What we know:
By secondary structure, this protein is of the alpha/beta class. Helices cover 19% and strands 30% of the residues. It is an enzyme of class 2 (transferase).
Amino acid sequence: MRQQQRSQPGSAPLDWAAARRTTYEAGLLAKLLPVRYPIGQADGATLAEALRTLTPLPAFPTSSVDGYAVRGEGPWRLSGRVLAGGEPGELRDGTAVEIATGAMVPERTERLIRVENATVADGHVSVENIPGPRVDVREIGEEAGSGEELLPEGHPVTPGVIGLAASCGHDLISVRPKPRAALLIFGDELAVTGPPGHGRVRDALGPSLPSMLAHAGAEPVPGFRPRGPIDDTLEAHVSALRAALDDADVVCTTGGTMHGPVDHLHPALAELGASYVVNTVAVRPGFPMLVAALPGDRFVVGLPGNPQSAIVAVVSLVLPLLAGLSGRDFPATSTVELGADIAGRGDYTHLSLVKINGRKAYPLPHAGSAMLRGLAAADGFAIIPPGEHGSAGQQVGFVRIPS
């Protein structure tokens, strides 16, 4: 991977917008190599080259109605039928053929008569008001010319894109696959079953983050399961990271992003030869988040252990990283109108949980970094820039939670 400027351990937290852009550019430099997929297996991938037509669209003149293809002056002698999939000959003067929607229009057809406007009697077709020439015909190349670019490189592959590729005659398309993701849960104080108590907190991120990563555009590694809680030792952290990086392009971890007595993520990254892309971000909640690059164009995203802070890190760092690795456009934020005031967080960007109601965004209660009640009801985060407060009626940035 080409070298770029990275934040260093101990440096000041990086501005939130700059952290998103820096992470995206790191992913873009390491974007996944193209592969050729059968079109039916490409959903969720990203076009690695522009999608172009193999023929004009349509490739032949096509009827857009059920009716009759005619030539010359009417009434027309009915001489046959043309169905979709057939290849008709040419029409003679004074004749008509019954034609189905989607069927190839016979050569020398002058116009189409809709079935509801036609009268058939004694083997002849007649009509009171003759339409203009070739009405209701989809002409060759009406939608696109041969070799025309339909969608650019970097466009997400959706069911609609798959259908378009099929209509062009493609069996295979060149795509960048979805980045493979794994999840490690740090903190052996976490309980993984039953109610919390006796000093143990129930792990909420292990069950929820895999789905969120999938909605964000990642592909779970084969046999993917959240691993953890990982023992609070450096050896266990290094071993778990090394194993996860064998299979994944991106490994997300939860907890351990600070420098406490049982926070082993930073020492583990150092032992694995990682370099920081981003190390802490000036955002509240969730500032002790990080992205580290490892040999082989692999990445570790350190999410804070508090649930809401972890989701802030997903929208702040994981989404841009996945977009870069996929070769997609930078995931820009949108705007919303605030329905109520939102306090700022001093020199930090404030990502405030909001619910969209009508055309306005309203802040939610129960929005502490360790709380999930507000998060479960939220559509996303309103973005309050450093040094500012949000006022009712103001337009502010908005980033949606993957769902």
